[in-house]
Structure formats: structure tokens, C-alpha cells
Write a structure and sequence with these properties.
The complex is a heterodimer.
Chain A lengths: L24 H7 L1 H20 L6 H26 L7 H15 L4 H28 L4 H19 L9 H4 L5 E2 L2 E2 H16 L3 H11 L1 H6 L4 H27 L11 H10 L11 H20 L6 H28 L1
Helix pairs in contact in A: 2-13, 2-14, 3-8, 3-11, 3-12, 3-13, 4-5, 4-6, 4-11, 5-6, 5-11, 9-11, 12-13, 12-14, 13-14
Chain B lengths: L3 E10 L2 E11 L4 E5 L6 H8 L7 E6 L2 E2 L5 H6 L2 E4 L11 H6 L13 H14 L16 H14 L4 E5 L7 H16 L3 E5 L3 H7 L2 E6 L2 E7 L5 H9 L18 E10 L3 E9 L3 E5 L6 H9 L5 E6 L2 E3 L4 H5 L5 E4 L3 H5 L6 H6 L7 E2 L2 E2 L1 H15 L15 H14 L4 E5 L7 H16 L3 E5 L3 H7 L2 E6 L2 E7 L5 H9 L6
Parallel strand pairs in B: 3-8, 3-9, 6-7, 7-8, 13-20, 13-21, 16-19, 19-20
Antiparallel strand pairs in B: 1-2, 1-4, 4-5, 9-10, 11-12, 11-14, 14-15, 17-18, 21-22
Classes of the chains: A mainly alpha, B alpha/beta.
Chain lengths: 340, 500
């Protein structure tokens, strides 16, 4: 080792102090490609929608569309956390159904009783989710299987509580979704709250640990992360957001439904994937998921104003999903080639 | 008093004894080397120390207090951190996020204080004179060597009194390895205990104060480093005399050209490489790191795009992708650089790893013949002396040397007779190294043609029939016979070629 080497690591200038390097714009662009594609799609859909329908570019429309998308957004927020951890949560379908039937059978005109039951639903969501996490950790089972099972169980319980759609939701609770503050409807405020929550959550140690576990579980473990605790919190939050979705959903339906939850399982995953969240964990942001949820919701509007059969909606959603996956895989390959 | 005292430490995995009755003692302020073949118990020992696994029997005292960490977190709380060979880094986090992971400085809102984190990162990198790193770069964009350096920074970021370096130099180019050795001495001088694992005797000699030797899952001896000779150490490591590490070099090359390479270029790293590899020949590829060796191997295997002409056994080929390169007796097979990442499926069994790329060989009328597969797997396991409980043992649970043997087996089963070996002994113990060299000679005598790169220069000098020295993406010199020496390789690698 006495020979003085002339070349350092990866042909870098032989300096020891970190220098201020140029920002790698192309790399950053490639990293965000899936998200940018989602934004582009949303702009395109809004553009077409706006050219076919008047009054699309108004606050009213924003309020209405956000209300229409909010249940999916809440469900997809939980799903995003789970996907970031590298898992998947199918049980949110059961939790949403269960939440709506409990609300429809227990909510009364008395605000304090209703508030209490709303809190119970939220707590139940967190606990059932945490139980998912615990089962996944302790039994070392696939999240897919565990949450498929709990989905079925929750669905059954929802059926037992309320076999058919019905029950009643107090009108003051239903009115919440259209209540306005400073010109914006409450769902828009919720949207902003979700983004703020995410900005905070992703910067906490817990948020980073969840992302890290999704990125490489073994490395996270070796770094001292308790995988069990990560699973508890991840799936707990997913259950909590599913319960939140149920509480919002009843403002739209005004009733409980033991079967409605299944309509949100796959769309919640699709919204996240369209928004650039990786199914393999470790990568993605809520902003993308929310854009994805808007895309999926507005496709419905678009199909409506185009006066074509509503069966085109799932077809269009599927095509968009494929395009997103394609965009992220192309970007991923381009990014990998750059590393080489 | 010793900082760490270990008595009768034991660990079993199912029926396999990984560690039995190990004893160990080390003081603060010393560099203590652990030596032993792969599978000798070193890895298990440091996994227990770092809290990754828990021991079944025996005791560990740290500072005279009982020490039994339930997880890596508990170990860190007692000031013990490991820089794993199996890296503990998160691909999707940035360099600085990785360094401070779980110990990030926080704001009042309990979020990460980025400014403070950046300041602490730069201070840490400066304090220990780290090679250049960009704190904001995502880890997955980094090379293996850079990741290893981040891992070291991570180990130092915490308030660590005992730092375990598990083959930390094996992924580093010479210059950075030298830096790490200096750093190790500096850490010991600051009063820390550094437990240092390396298969490079020269490094151990350069920095260790004391050393403990492992063999067959137990400790066999502990020495003051300056009171024991290399020969004694090697004898205690393998329990017998290792007559020679390097096999006798018998010229087995024929005149038949196996692999002919003309004007192969790829990007800026490879510009016009010409050479011919003959049947029965071991052709070494040397030079300083980063002068196109990696790119050459990748281009030949078809993992990166390249221009130029490549002929295999006299026939021109366009090697488009690894699968194409793999086909049959006329093909090429590669032992890749990063065996954990590229070569092995760690969560699959030895059998599956061996047969994955040659599944066609066991199919009869479209059906998989388990018997045929089992017979070939057994043959390979015996031939290579792979130490696995059963062929169903997961590859990830094997020692480094045995993992490398599985990759060799996988490569041999493809029946390709042109073999590309990229640093095949990296992180492999002395005994297995010897076996690998012998295997290379045996294969050469059977008519295989072997292109061989090693980051360890003596290996090239003692094993290769000829050595190509690369500089700036070109072949700067071809050394033969008596001209093959470390001095000549370095001269060709570093100095301008004299006008011939």
C-alpha cells in the first residue's frame, strides 16, 4: 500500500472535503416522472371535461369534485402508508362497510352520542388495523392473506349488524360535506389537512421508519427498527383512515351499507399507483395519491358528460392505470441506466 | 479490565451449531481483529454482539455488566454498533438520512431538522476526513464502495464505544481502504474498541493490536498481534498447514482461441479493447480500480451496450443480454461482482439457485425431472464441496465462501466454457480462496477459458497465465511469464507506456 494511487473512487477528483455539487435535474425529473405523468393526465382530463361542460373552472366544481373524491382519498391515504411500507391492505373494504353500518344504526340527533360513536368507529378502525399488523408480524403471514381474511370477517360483521342498505344518518352530519368555510367546502379543507398531515408525518421518525422498512426490511431491522411496531402503526393508520372514509361516506349516502366498502379496495391501490407510489414499498407521496384519486373520480364525470355507457368508466380507469405503470417503469429503467 | 468479556458463548440454528463455547476479551482503545475461515463463527459472533441474533448459551459482559441485547436497538443503547458487510442501509433514503436514521435531530414538531442534520453530516464527514459524498444523494444511486463508506459514517454517527467493522475494506478501492485503516487507528486512539474483521492479512498486520482466531464455530486462540507469525495464524485458522495458497501454475493453454475481442468500446469507460483468450488459459485483468475492468466484464456478458467485435470459438456473436450470453456450450458465464445483489437469490435454496438458469436441462417432455435435478445438484455440491446442511438450505444463510461456491456451481451448470470471474474471492476466507484457485486451474486444464479480474494484485500474479493491465479504458500492457509481478502491473497501470 506504499504506492501512491493516482485515481480515487469512481474517477472522482482527489479531494477529501464534500463540495457543493451541481443539482442533478434530469435525475430528479426521472424520479418524479410517475407523479408528473399523473399531473399531466389530470390536466388532460380537466381540459377535456372543461371543454365539454361549462362551469368546470369554478369553486363550486372544486367543492363538488373534492366531495365526490374524498371517501376514496381517505381510504387511499391509509393505503398509501401501507404501500410505502411495502404491504397492502384489503381489509379497508370491510372496515368502510362496518363503519357505515355502525354509523347508520347508532348515530342519533343528539350530537354528543353521535360524536361518541364516531370516535368509537375511528378507534375500532385503528385497533382492527393494528390487529392486522400484529398478525402479519407475529404469524409472519403475507399482508395480502391476512387483510383478505379480516376483510371477510369485517364484511360478515357488517352484514350481521345491518343485512341490507339502510339505517339513517342525522341530517346535520350529512350537511357537513356541503358546509362551507371561507368559500371552500369542508372536503377541500380536509384535503388540505391531509396534505399537511402527510408533510408532517413523512418528516417524523415514525414516517421515515415506515418508508425505510418498505424500502428494505432487513436493513431497517439491522438499524434497530422494530418491525412489529412499524406494522402496528402502519396498518393501524390504514384502519383509522378507512374508518374516517366510512364517516365521510355516510355524508354522501345518508345511509349505511354492508357491501359498499369493496368499491374502495382496488381504487385505493389504483389511486396510489397512478400517483407514483411504488407497489414494492419505499417510494411515493400522498400528493400523487390524491391526484390519482381525482383522476379516477373525474373519469366518472367525463364518461357522464360524453353521454356514453357508464361501463366505459372502469375501462378508462384501467387504461389510465396501465399508462401510469408504463410511465413509472420507463422512468425507472432510464434512471437505472444513468447509474451504470 | 477488559471492556468486553465473553465466556462459553453458543448459538445453534436448528441442528447446525454456528458457535460453541466461544471466549473473547478486548480492551477499550485497541483494534482487535477476528480471523477465521468463512463459516468459522465470526459472523454469528458479531451478529450476537450487535443484537441481530440472540445467543443460546454463555455470557457476555460489557463494562462488567451483563449484556444480552434483544435487538440492534438495545445494542446501540449500550454503545455497540456494527458496520455490516451485509449493509444496513435503506436504498430509498438519502445519504444523510441513512447516516442519522432513527437518530435524526428533531424540531419542536418532532419532525426531522434538516438543517441540523446537514450540519452534523458535514461535521462528521470532515472530522473523520471522509472521501467525497453528497449528503442529499439517494443511496440507490451510489456504487457499492460509496455505500460501504456511508455505512461506516452511520456507525460513527452514534455515540459508539465499540465499533464492529465486518470486512469493511473488501468493497473499497485501495485508496479508500487505506483511509479506513487510518480511521480505524484514529478511533482506537480516541479510546474506542474497534473489532475488525478482514481476510486481508496485510491489513490485519497493519492495524491490529490483538487478534482472536475462530475455527469451526469456536475460538481457538487469542494473540498479541506482534507476538505471532502469519504462518502460525493461518495454521490455527485452518487447523492444518496450508501448504500453498496458490496452486501450481501448469500451462494448459492451447492455440485455439476461445474468446476474441476487437475494438470493444462502451461509453467513456471503455475505449477500444483488443485481446484474445485461449482455450485452457487463465487470463488476468488488472490495473487500478475504475479503469474499465468492470465495464469490460459487463460488456462481454452483455449487461451493458457496447460496440466492437466479439468472437466466441471463432464465431462472431452479438451478445445482447445475459440470457443470450448464457446459452449452452458455446456461451459465456459470469461470476458477478456483487454476489448478494446480482449473483444469488438469498431467499431461495441452494438447489434453486444452482438450477435456476439451466432449468431446461432437467425437463423431459415439458416436465421437470426432480431426480435428474437432484442428481446434478448433488454432483455440483460434492464437486465444489459446498457446506450446506441440505440442498434446501437457503442461500442467504450460507457463509460468504459457500455462497461464492454456489455461484460457481450455477455458472458451471450452464455448460458455458468461457468463464468471466469478476473478483471471485472478494470477502472469501483463505481456505476457500485456495479452493477457488485450484478450481480455476482444474477448469483450465479441462479446456475452459477463464477471464479473471481481482482487486487483490498477488492473486493475479500467482494465478493468471497472462495479465492484461487496463488504464483509461484500454489495455495498457499484456504481461507474460516472468514479467508478471506486482511491480510491473502497477508500472503499466500508472505510467505512460513507453514508445514500443
Amino acid at each position: 500500500m506504499s504506492v501512491e494511487h493516482t485515481v480515487g473512487m469512481a474517477q472522482r477528483p482527489a479531494e477529501t472535503k464534500p463540495t457543493k455539487p451541481a443539482i442533478d435535474w434530469r435525475g430528479r425529473l426521472l424520479d418524479r416522472a410517475p407523479f408528473l405523468v399523473a399531473c399531466l393526465m389530470l390536466a388532460l382530463i380537466i381540459g377535456i371535461y372543461g371543454s365539454l361542460q361549462s362551469g368546470v373552472f369554478s369553486l363550486d366544481e372544486l367543492n363538488l369534485d373534492t366531495a365526490a373524491a374524498m371517501t376514496l382519498m381517505l381510504a387511499a391515504t391509509g393505503q398509501t402508508i401501507v404501500l410505502l411500507r411495502g404491504g397492502i391492505d384489503l381489509s379497508i373494504g370491510g372496515m368502510i362497510s362496518l363503519g357505515t353500518v355502525i354509523a347508520a344504526t347508532r348515530f342519533t340527533d343528539d350530537p354528543s352520542t353521535t360524536a361518541l360513536w364516531a370516535l368509537i368507529i375511528l378507534a375500532l378502525g385503528f385497533l382492527i388495523g393494528a390487529l392486522n399488523g400484529l398478525l402479519i408480524s407475529l404469524l409472519k403471514l403475507q399482508p395480502f392473506l391476512v387483510t383478505l381474511a379480516t376483510w371477510s370477517i369485517l364484511n360478515g360483521v357488517a352484514m350481521i349488524i345491518l343485512p341490507t342498505d339502510g339505517g339513517s344518518i342525522p341530517s346535520w352530519w350529512v350537511g357537513f360535506a356541503s358546509a362551507q368555510f371561507i368559500g371552500l367546502a369542508s372536503p377541500v379543507w380536509m384535503l388540505l389537512a391531509l396534505l399537511m398531515f402527510w408533510g408532517w408525518f413523512r418528516a417524523t421518525r415514525a414516517g421515515i421508519a415506515i418508508q425505510a422498512t418498505g424500502s428494505n426490511e432487513k436493513s431497517a431491522f439491522l438499524s434497530g427498527v422494530s418491525i412489529t411496531r412499524v406494522n402496528l402503526v402502519t396498518y393501524g393508520l390504514s384502519g383509522l383512515f378507512a374508518a374516517g372514509a366510512a364517516l365521510f361516506l355516510v355524508t354522501q349516502t345518508g345511509a349505511g351499507s354492508p357491501t359498499i366498502g369493496k368499491d374502495y379496495i382496488l381504487p385505493s391501490v389504483a389511486a396510489a399507483v397512478i400517483g407514483g407510489v411504488s407497489l414494492f414499498g419505499g417510494r411515493g407521496h400522498l400528493a400523487g395519491t390524491l391526484i390519482g384519486a381525482f383522476v379516477l373520480t373525474l373519469i366518472g364525470n367525463l364518461v357522464f358528460v360524453l353521454h356514453v355507457s357508464s361501463y366505459w368508466q372502469p375501462v378508462a380507469s384501467g387504461v389510465i392505470l396501465l399508462l401510469s405503470v408504463l410511465a413509472s417503469s420507463v422512468a425507472e429503467k432510464a434512471a437505472r441506466n444513468r447509474v451504470q | 479490565m477488559d471492556l468486553v468479556t465473553v465466556n462459553g458463548l453458543s448459538k445453534r440454528y436448528g441442528g447446525i451449531v454456528a458457535l460453541s463455547e466461544a471466549t473473547f476479551g478486548a480492551r477499550a482503545g485497541e483494534v482487535h481483529a477476528l480471523l477465521g475461515e468463512n463459516g468459522a463463527g465470526k459472523s454469528t459472533f458479531i451478529q450476537i454482539l450487535s443484537g441481530a441474533v440472540q445467543h443460546d448459551g454463555g455470557s457476555i459482559l460489557v463494562d462488567g455488566r451483563d449484556y444480552r441485547p434483544a435487538n440492534p436497538d438495545a445494542a446501540q443503547a449500550r454503545g455497540i454498533a456494527a458496520v455490516f458487510q451485509e449493509l444496513s442501509l435503506i436504498p430509498d433514503l438519502s445519504v444523510e438520512q441513512n447516516i442519522w436514521f432513527r437518530h435524526e435531530p428533531r424540531t419542536l414538531l418532532r419532525t426531522v431538522n434538516r438543517k441540523e442534520m446537514r450540519r452534523k453530516t458535514l461535521a462528521l464527514l470532515e472530522k473523520y476526513n471522509f472521501p467525497a459524498l453528497r449528503p442529499d444523494q439517494e443511496l440507490r444511486r451510489l456504487t457499492l464502495a460509496e455505500r460501504q463508506i456511508v455505512e461506516i459514517a452511520k456507525g460513527l454517527a452514534k455515540d459508539t464505544r465499540i465499533l464492529i467493522l465486518d470486512e469493511a475494506t473488501s468493497a473499497l478501492p485501495a485508496r479508500e481502504a487505506e483511509w479506513l485503516l487510518k480511521l480505524t487507528r484514529q478511533l482506537a486512539a480516541e479510546g474506542r474498541l474497534v473489532i475488525f474483521i478482514s481476510h486481508r492479512m496485510a491489513e490485519v498486520r497493519a492495524i491490529a493490536d490483538r487478534l482472536t482466531i475462530f475455527r469451526n464455530g469456536s475460538t481457538v486462540a487469542a494473540h498479541e498481534a506482534n507476538a505471532v507469525s502469519d504462518n502460525e495464524i493461518v495454521t490455527q485458522m485452518i487447523g492444518r498447514h496450508l501448504d500453498r495458497l496458490y496452486p501450481e501454475r501448469v500451462a494448459t493453454a492451447t492455440d485455439s482461441i476461445a474468446l476474441s475481442v476487437k475494438g470493444v468500446s462502451s461509453g467513456s469507460r471503455l475505449s477500444g479493447v483488443d485481446f484474445a483468450l485461449r482455450e485452457g488459459e487463465v487470463l488476468g485483468v488488472g490495473g487500478l480500480q475504475g479503469h474499465g475492468q468492470r465495464e469490460l466484464f459487463q460488456a462481454l456478458f452483455g449487461a451493458t451496450r457496447a460496440s466492437g467485435t466479439i468472437e466466441l470459438w471463432g464465431k462472431p456473436v452479438s451478445i445482447g443480454n445475459p440470457r443470450q450470453a448464457l446459452t449452452g456450450k458455446d456461451g459465456i458465464a459470469l461470476v458477478p461482482e456483487d454476489r448478494r445483489g446480482q449473483g444469488l437469490l438469498l431467499t431461495k435454496s441452494v438447489r434453486e439457485n444452482l438450477t435456476l438458469s439451466v432449468i431446461k436441462r432437467f425437463t423431459e417432455n415439458g416436465l421437470l425431472s426432480r431426480q435428474k435435478e437432484a442428481a446434478l445438484v448433488k454432483e455440483m455440491v460434492d464437486f465444489l464441496r459446498i457446506k450446506a446442511g441440505t440442498p434446501e438450505q437457503l442461500a442467504g444463510t450460507l457463509s460468504g465462501g459457500n455462497q461464492q461456491k454456489v455461484i460457481f456451481g450455477k455458472m458451471l451448470l450452464t455448460q458455458a466454457r468461457v468463464l468471466l470471474l469478476y473478483d471471485p474471492t472478494r470477502g472469501v476466507d483463505v481456505g476457500t480462496k485456495g479452493e477457488i484457485f485450484q478450481l480455476m486451474r482444474d477448469l483450465a486444464s479441462k479446456g475452459y477459458a477463464i477471464l479473471f479480474h481481482s482487486s487483490d494484485m498477488p492473486e493475479l500474479v500467482h494465478v493468471a497465465d497472462r495479465v492484461l493491465v487496463m488504464r483509461n479504458g484500454r489495455i495498457a500492457a499484456t504481461l507474460e511469464g516472468d514479467h508478471i509481478s506486482e511491480e510491473e502491473i502497477l508500472r503499466a497501470a500508472m505510467l505512460e507506456t513507453k514508445a514500443a
